[in-house]
Amino acid sequence: MRRLEGKVAIVTGGAGGIGSATAHRLTSEGARVAVADIDLPRAREVARAVGSDAIAVQYDAADAASIQSLVETTIKHYGRLDILHNNAAITAPEKQSQDTTAVDIPFEIWELTLRVNLTSYLAASKYALPHMIAQGSGASFIYRENNSRYIGVQYSIEGRDLQRAVEEGQWLPGRAAGW
Q: Residue 24: inside a domain, yes or no?
């Protein structure tokens, strides 16, 4: 038996390179996957390439209501949720090129970056975790790690989740590189 047999995962930013590779890896281990992305046509391409164990779901990482809908759609389709891969991030060159210095960055870019690269991780966890805990089978959270300018955001996320782990006692850490 594959080690993720019967598990269900959400992969945010699922239409991108890391998200697509993660969706393929999770299904190869037996999981069923919701490939979630703002770019629905690309998410559909990834889901088709992954096969019958994947669905495409459009969502906007900058919108908490959209994130809640993503979790609800996944649970409605598969009946459960076990793994949340928070992978969405601002990667568009036209946005990243404006993320320059404290003096020059437009506030709109700063706020969008925080909503997508930080707040969306909290929102996804907020809406997914109660279902995971209610199932009684634990929860796994996987975060994208890199050496980009967003490393401070990543440390904020991991620190918050370490605190949540202590409070909930139900959290099982996951690392994409350490499967």
A: yes
